[in-house]
Amino acid sequence: MRMGYALDRTQRFQSTYFLTPRLRTGQAGHLIRTVKSYNAFDGEKVAHALTAFEGRVAGVEFGREGSPVIYVDLPYWTHQREGDVSQAPGVRLSDQDNDKLVAELRSVFVGQLKADEFSVQQRRVRIWWD
Fold this sequence. Notes:
By secondary structure, the chain is an alpha+beta fold. It has one domain. It is built from 4 helices and 7 strands. The radius of gyration is 15 Å and the shape is globular.
């Protein structure tokens, strides 16, 4: 994160395009908090909001596409949710359940946290701040 957001003022390089591998919401939250602010993006508030989705998503990627970006992967099955360690197959999540989760993500990240872009492709949500 330090290299991507030039958090160390002594460095002369920053990567404006990078993405972490898929992380759990708690892990992603720790990284997000390191970015105190970037225009309308507030790392502390975004990380805190992400905790409401813990155990309900498959994972989160955080990075930068010029500006801060978060990708949220949504599960197709209950056993694909982060933290599920059961060996038994889960129950398929309905499109209606998925739509409700997407609407909640949009309400939080666009409505409350002022993300500039919010898009959904299949069960992957992209949230970006300018």
